[in-house]
Amino acid sequence: MGDRPYDPRQTRERTSMQTGAGYATDLDVGVDVVMVYGVDPSLPERLRSWSDQGYICHCMTGIAWGEYQDYLYGRWDGINHEDEVQMDREGRRISHGGDVYYMCPTESFAEFIAERAQRAIDAGAQAIHLEEPEFWARAGYSEAFKRAWAEYYGESWVPPHESPDARFRASKLMYDLYCRAVARVLSRLRTYADERSVDIRLYIPTHSVLNYARWGIVSPESSLAHLEDCDGYVAQVWTGTARVPNVYRGEIAERTFETAFLEYGALANLTRVSGQRMWLLSDPIEDNPDRSWRDYRENWHSTVIAKLLWPEIWRYETMPWPERILRGAYREDDEPSTGSEPARERMEIPPGYATELLIAANALTDMRQERVEWISGLQGCGILISDTMMFQREDPMSSDPAMGFFYGLALPLLEAGIPVQPVQLEFAHLPQYLDQYEVLFLSYEGQKPPSAACHEALRDWVHAGGVLVYLAEDGDPYEGVLEWWHAEGPGYASPREHLFETLGLHPEAHPGSGSGTHRVRAGGLVYQRVSPSSFAHSPDGPERVLRLTRQAYRRRNLRFETSSQIALQRGPYVIAAGVEGVDAGERLEMKGPFIDLFDPELPVIDGVKLLPGERRLLQRIDAVDGPTDRVLCAGSRVYDQRREGDVFRFTASGPAGTIATTRVRLSDRPRTVEIDQEHHVEARWQSASKTLCLRHPNVPTGIDILIHLGA
Fold this sequence. Notes:
Elements: E1 15-19, E2 33-37, H1 43-51, E3 56-62, H2 69-72, H3 107-123, E4 127-131, E5 135-136, H4 143-153, H5 164-195, E6 201-206, H6 209-215, E7 217-218, E8 232-235, H7 239-242, E9 246-248, E10 251-253, H8 256-274, E11 277-281, H9 293-308, E12 315-320, H10 322-326, E13 329-331, E14 346-348, H11 351-364, E15 372-376, E16 381-385, H12 404-415, E17 421-424, E18 439-442, H13 452-463, E19 467-471, H14 484-487, H15 495-503, E20 517-520, E21 523-528, H16 532-537, H17 541-555, E22 565-570, E23 573-578, E24 590-596, E25 604-608, E26 615-620, E27 630-634, E28 637-644, E29 647-653, E30 659-665, E31 670-674, E32 682-686, E33 691-697, E34 703-709
Parallel strand pairs: 1-2, 1-12, 2-3, 3-4, 4-6, 6-8, 8-11, 11-12, 16-17, 16-18, 18-19, 19-21
Antiparallel strand pairs: 5-7, 9-10, 13-14, 15-22, 20-21, 22-23, 23-26, 24-25, 24-26, 27-30, 28-29, 29-34, 30-33, 31-34, 32-33
């Protein structure tokens, strides 16, 4: 373990970070797992540097792009593979930077990736992450893709932009190519590890289907849950994905919390059906280096709260690239420049923000709680999504580029305090998958059903009492692609017609002049022939969505409630987001006392009344179990807490160059606080909460703090 204090939590993988650097004292943030990036010759040394400090070590590398020039230029197998680079309609290679290209995942490329990744097993990594299997939808013009098309479809390649059918077929092929490539690499690595009697875990870090569809990327997504050799995933959601503007009440704007919440939810489907591990990522900054510390902090708050509102998941990647966070230099704020003044000076991370990041990272280690309770937020509402939404995002595009077909439904529900869940159509047929939902929304405006089985599952769910709300105008050009609904039975002009007939309704069932509700056994269908995108672009769109939702819940004989906040309690932690709300009444107040974990001073507050856009991570003091004398929260990793006579003591460690704030609950008023002579500690006692707040420099090797109690 080197000089690090022993921490029993290091045997449990709860928090992680991703870095390309070797161990350094200023990066020693005390997570459980370090994902060391890259499989170059320096990997063994970098892995060892972290392992020697007591960290569990994983390795991460790209499966679509990377420093793979040996393969590209034929140094690996003597064959030049430049014709496998993803290429757009104009003949341009798609690059991640320089000659780091996105590749068409041929069998030989998969073999190369597997061979390279074996270095991680040889170096002693306990897990390997193969990140981002991505095929740009605008690609599909390389010679390798043309060969794959001929093999897959048994006919000559067709330019994807020529028709909706060609685009859909090209995207299906891209999807399948990466399914096969990922499965091949995982299988090769599993076999290699088994032959050496090595226990290795294999993960796929991936963006959400919502982000990939928005950015025009095709990736296997839901199919990952069925890969035999896959042990889990990293949900790569952060400010950079979640701040992409969307439309609400006709206004286009960034809505980081709402988008992040939905992205995390889409990825949560994978672990719900597979039982595999999931890590939820958030980033204290983002890939764009031209933002300010204030901007990064506000958006980080939104992503942290969004991921904590998915309580079934309790593993987190706290930061990718800590070297660009803790060593980075960015503007302090976003004040606009007049043009005549010099460029605003960049500064290192504000000390308070660094402390706050460490406080939150330590709180994330404690999110596996038995007690989980929604304080506000109507449950049981979902929006059905499919991987096929990635298949309609390039020319010829059939729907709103801002994906109003989804966000036009989701944002009004979230802003009304309803934590609506994305529900994967590809999993609908699995036992009990739909059972938790009372009301489901569905549109085939920007996506298509993957199979007839999902309609049969929806029929069974509706027959058992569920209410399906179907919204779309007929006439989407992708209804005419040569997919299964045209070959099913007598053939259907659209997937909606097949859905309605499966439900027992006439395919031309009218939406109705009044309620538009059709009784279907114990459940029902609410049908309006309207584009969901119209709700996004209309000032009164949210009210129209809520009327439909209220109508659906009334059909279920359930009370429909909205709220001005979405709030969840996980053990002693309260995770809360203030939303727009729909009532003019007074906002709810949550009673404390709480410790504010998004404040580096860790203040104790009596209550919270959230305003729209406000995000809070709180710890309820009286809900913390265990002995009275204990550390409640800290900007350092805390070890060996114990009360010995009139002394309460513990050891704290954290990255060099940062300040720790710690709040300690005590049974007696402290007399003195003792720390080693090289460091200074500030102590403030609060009688009302019987807590002591300490501030001191962090030390990676740990410092002992002794609190003398009593008169």
